Amino acid sequence: MGASLTQEGVNFAVFSAQATGMELCLYSEDGRRELMRLPFRDREGDVWHMEVAGIGAGQLYGLRAQGPYVPDQGLRFNANKLLIDPYARGLAGRLRWSDALMGYKIGSPRGDMSFDTRDSAFAVPKSVVVDGHFDWKGDRPPAVPLAETVIYEAHVKALTKRHPEIAPALRGTYAALAEPAMIEHYRRLGVTTVELLPIHAFFDDRFLVAKGLTNHWGYNTMGFFAPEPRYGGRDPLVELKTAIRSLHRAGIEVILDVVYNHSGEGDEWGPTLSFRGLDNQGYYRLAGGGRHYANDAGTGNTFDLTQPAVLRLVMDSLRYWVEEVHVDGFRFDLATVLGREPQGFDPQGGFFDALRQDPVLQRVKLIAEPWDIGPGGYQLGAYPAPFLEWNDKFRDGVRSFWRGDAGMAPELARRLLGSAEKFDHSRRAATSSVNMITAHDGFTLEDLVTYTVKRNLANGEDNRDGHDDNHADNMGVEGPSDDPAIRAARDLRKRNLLATLLLSQGTPMLLAGDELGHSQGGNNNAYAQDNETTRIDWAQGDKRLAGFVGRLTALRRTHPVLRQKLFLHARPRASDGLPDVIWHRADGLPPAPEDWHNPGFRCLGLELRMAAEGPDAADALYIVINGGPATELFLPEAPHGWLLDLDTTRPEAAPVPVAARHDIAAQSVLVFRPDRARPPKDAQPPGAAP
Question: Coil, helix or strand for 584?
């Protein structure tokens, strides 16, 4: 499918079941002049194809489809509109908003039932014939085990645009992702996997352009095989491949956030750019007799993955990015759409079956955003293995505990153990939960402790957009503060949140910039802010906080008990009879049922060992999360005593031996490990009488 180089020229193939004719338009190097228009004369089933001799890589082209224009029956063919090849490996030029892009006449009393005869070619990006050859120099995927994975969610441009150690010409580009300064930062943080916000080719929505804004996040895909040109130079694809090759050499994986649930064409009032003009019925889920679109993604349209051609498009795209671009996995935006069959969401549906049997895609990481706005859209925990899932229960529960909400100890306990009540089924692993405190959508970590009310006015929607319930806590003052006490409380809260994240079972995800104290000024929906709001200020970044994150990830690497593959259920281990999990109160006793139901139960101790069902190991930790006042702590019995390995109130303190009775500060997280350097408590001193 798409444009493929042959010995003689280029072969073109495009799907349309309903078209009565199809044309290929070839363009000049600048994309301004149509050089020739060639009709497709060969058709096999629903695939139109032709080979054109004498052209090659770099050729610009577009498509035109003839057929009936009957919108109330779901047919919207209009040969006056130049169409992007859904399989184009590259796009040239930017979308220029014009009424000519619409298949109907704007302002007509017949609305979208009217027919527009203007040619749209001047306003449409041209598809590009691409030679995908690249010298990978023996590149192999890092293949980081899930149990060792730490994800770093980042935006290509916002991550590096203000980095002083990167050449100005490279900042904000694919190439900058793998600059030495960035690789060193990933290593210091201890992240293994960079997850990029959408880099499939997209465009800026018309309503944003009218307001002088851009589609910063990129959730408006129009090219599922083409890298977004704005993050590259002369050859974005080569630059992206080069960056991935360098990251792989450093042991860093690359995951793409992908948007296969909808396209950028919007609803019936949107432009005719590709899928709508090629086969509206074949690509989209339609409603209202065919005139309207199902809108489960909240963007105006929804792809229909029960259609073989659409399922093939998605699968071909996924394989392309793995085989040709060497990416290491995908995070699926609004993934419930992809599993929605006619009867509703089905974890055994066609998309999941196709994905799980695919020999190429079986070896990469697959992450679902397990919700959409359609019927039955919230499906946390319902995805089949080997999917991981974004866990909003972790995000909201941990935030609420640290905010001081009453009765949150049971919720915290569930999240610390990998949300087993959601994920421990169907032989799923304890890594299934992608734990997060923050993500691109919502407050940054700095804003989470600085604001309780969103400040999204810059988005031009009168502050109506974005979440209203952020489970946030401004620590006593709304907005930035120079008060040393407020600043110290906020810094401690950030460390507590990060420690809870990285000490929990599951797969942790960090938001790029959180480790440096990046603020968006309270904007919790910065989707249109391609400016200083979203760009990380490296020069002013909090290097101490970044160092603390590195200490947490090192602790996680050192102790297998923090990154287990099996769920923990307080079952006794065969080797020593000890449970793999023991809960404690501050006084050392196990919590009684009434403790778990006590709204003021705020100090929770977790004695952690390897899962009873797994191979026995000597590793053990004692984690204390104190969301209440300072208190006296009684540590569990240990043959050699305990070493205090980490205390969020003293983030740079070295490990130190501690007594069995230990005073701990208010609002703190502590990690103790057995002090094996000390002799057992019952050992006789040298020379003592037997």
Answer: strand
Average pLDDT over residues 454-467: 92
Residue 615 has pLDDT above 80, yes or no: no
pLDDT per position as a tens digit, 396-412? 999 999 999 999 999 99
Q: What's residue 675's pLDDT? A: 83
Q: Which domain holds residue 101?
A: 2-128
Is position 542 within any domain? Answer: yes
- Helices then strands (H, E): number in the chain? 14, 33
> From the candidates 179, 205, 257, 333, which is the catalytic residue?
333
Mean pLDDT of the chain: 94
Residue 164 lies in a domain: no
Number of domains in the chain: 3
Furthest-apart CA pair in the chain: how many Å?
Answer: 105
Decide if 296 contacts 371 (C-beta within 8 A). Answer: no
**Residues 258, 237: Cα–Cα separation, whole Å:** 17
Same domain, 557 and 585: no
Using the structure block, give the residue that is written with the tokens 């799907």: 15
DSSP E strand stretches across 439-537: 507-511
333 carries an active-site annotation: yes
Burial class of residue 117 in the structure, from the number of CB atoms within 10 Å of its CB (0-12 exposed, 13-18 middle, 19+ buried): exposed
Q: Cβ(623)–Cβ(603) under 8 Å?
A: no
Same structural domain, 589 and 534: no
Cβ neighbours of 559 (radius 10 Å): 17
- Check residue 688 and give its pLDDT: 35
Check whether 433 has a pLDDT greater than 80. Answer: yes
Residue in the block written with tokens 């090759």: 245
pLDDT at residue 589 greater than cutoff 90: yes
What SS3 string covers 118-156?
Answer: CCCHHHCCEEECCCCCCCCCCCCCCCCCHHHCCEEEECH
For residues 526 and 647, membership in a common domain is answered with: no
Q: Go through the chain and tell me how many residues it has.
A: 690
CATH number of the domain residue 477 falls in: 3.20.20.80
- Are 498 and 533 members of one domain? yes
Q: What is the residue-wise DSSP string for 218-287?
A: ---EEEEEEE-GGG-SS-HHHHHHHHHHHHHHTT-EEEEEE--S--TT-STTS--SSHHHHHHHHHB-EE
Is 619 a catalytic site residue? no
Q: What is the pLDDT confidence band of residue 576, given thresholds at 50, 70 and 90?
A: confident
Same domain (yes/no): 602, 541: no
Please name the residue that has the structure tokens 């740079």: 652
- CA-to-CA separations, 602 to 409, 410, 505, in angstroms, rounded: 6, 10, 20
Q: Which of 85, 239, 369, 530 is catalytic?
A: 369
Composition of the chain by helix, strand, coil, percent to 5: 25, 20, 55
Residue holding tokens 């031996």? 657
Asked whether residue 227 is assigned to any structural domain, the reply reads: no
pLDDT, tens digit, 9 for 90 and up, residues 79-91: 999 999 999 999 9
